[in-house]
Design goal:
Blueprint (H helix, E strand, L loop, with lengths): L6 E6 L3 H9 L5 E7 L1 H4 L6 H4 L4 E4 L3 H13 L4 E3 L5 H13 L3 E4 L5 H20 L4 E8 L9 H14 L5 E5 L5 E8 L4 E8 L3 H14 L4 E3 L1 H5 L7
Parallel strand pairs: 1-2, 1-3, 3-4, 4-5, 5-10, 6-7
Antiparallel strand pairs: 6-8, 8-9
Helix pairs in contact: 1-8, 4-5, 6-7
Length: 239
């Protein structure tokens, strides 16, 4: 899935996701000019010299650093794709800065196309179950590796929100942290004598890496705040 123009890419975060993105970057038409971990970033934050001429950055770190990292990219004039979750309290403020200063940010809790489709399936299912009024209770169970910081996951919160809007009532979430699971999200509708179960299973974190790289190429040359839905063409203009 290469492109004729090679783009210079900075990867912020050298954990498992960052390494996966860097390893696949050349296949998607990128040259990785910076792979930045805490040792490089923490002393002075994200700066233009640190980005080393990157035309776009991808940020997968932890909630306490995400806002500062995105702001650093904005100050450096570098569009950024962010997959860090758990920084909702500061994200609205950062997004307003992006709009005001005519930067570019694409944030998503999940970069899997399958999860995007799954979200629409869950919404339709929740609506049908609610319309049937047959006494089904909804519940969401999400499972991730034991190093994932936020619980529930950003994807689980987004799926629960979609289901709640469709069904008109809250959907509880149970979070499981175990082993090396890349990500599993299961929505159940439980009745007195039967159960409906919908499940999305990520088998390899490379599915998120490829989505993030596709988003990184898409955002170059744009201004505004975007979601994965914008890139996939399922919503309108930037927010």
């Amino acid at each position: 899935m290469t492109n004729s123009k090679t783009l210079r890419l900075a990867v912020i975060g050298d954990g498992k996701m960052g390494q996966a993105i860097a390893s696949l970057a050349s296949q998607y038409g990128f040259e990785v000019v910076a792979l930045l971990g805490e040792q490089q970033v923490l002393p002075q934050g994200i700066t233009k010299p640190l980005l080393d001429g990157a035309e776009v950055a991808v940020e997968f770190t932890t909630p306490q650093f995400a806002a500062a990292n995105v702001r650093g990219c904005l100050a450096a004039g570098c569009p950024v794709v962010c997959g860090t979750t758990g920084w909702d309290n500061s994200r609205a403020e950062v997004e307003e800065e992006i709009r005001t200063r005519k930067g570019a940010l694409l944030w998503a809790p999940n970069f899997s196309i399958g999860v995007h489709l799954f979200s629409r399936i869950v919404a339709n299912a929740a609506r049908l179950v609610a319309e049937a009024n047959a006494g089904f209770d909804a519940h969401l169970i999400e499972t991730h590796h034991n190093q994932k910081v936020d619980a529930p996951s950003g994807t689980a919160r987004a799926l629960a929100d979609v289901a709640e809007k469709a069904a008109g009532k809250p959907v509880p979430i149970t979070s499981v942290r175990v082993g090396n699971v890349p990500g599993t999200h299961k929505v159940i509708f439980d009745g007195a004598f039967e159960q409906i179960a919908l499940e999305h299973v990520a088998r390899d974190r490379r599915v998120f890496a490829t989505g993030a790289l596709t988003a990184a190429r898409w955002i170059v040359g744009r201004q505004g705040v975007f979601t994965f839905d914008h890139m996939l063409g399922t919503t309108g203009t930037s927010e």
